[in-house]
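ok so dumb question maybe but i'm new to this and my supervisor (M.) told me to 'just get the structure for 3-deoxy-D-manno-octulosonate 8-phosphate phosphatase KdsC' and walked off. so i did the thing. is this what she meant?? sequence i used:
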Amino acid sequence: MDIRLRSRLANITTFVFDVDGVFTDATLIVSENDVLRTFNVRDGYAIQMALKQGYNIAVITGGKQQSIATRLHGLGIKDVFLNAGTDQKLEVYNGYLEKNNIEAAHTVFVGDDIPDYLVMKYTETLAACPFDAVEEVQSIADYISDKCGGDGVVRDVIELVMKAQDKWLKVF
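this is what came out, is it supposed to look like this??
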């Protein structure tokens, strides 16, 4: 692992994730009453481990469905921001950091598409993305997971940070 990346991982206290293309593979099943997504259960377990170790976790998504919040709240994530469009994600992100007195340099943001680009490019955050993120996002990412969206990228990033801080598997 790159020494610069390792030193940045040592200071991470906060994870911020997009949903579609990160927690999910970006496939949406549209029904009359909701838009359905498939979440990876291993990502959920890693979220719970990170929360037990005291990390802050937030989600900022353009998705509007309450089912997103229901799933994420069920994992213990309190800060879930729905309906954040491309032009709002950076504002929501900065507001979250300010409200919780978190430095951007202590944050890893995981996104996969153009709506995540501004947060990843114009903050001091550690930018991460799935293997199948769009080219523009990959070009500015500090870390590109070998996992695709919906296939364990959330867990991969959490493990990366927690292992670098010697906190992985320390919650038993």
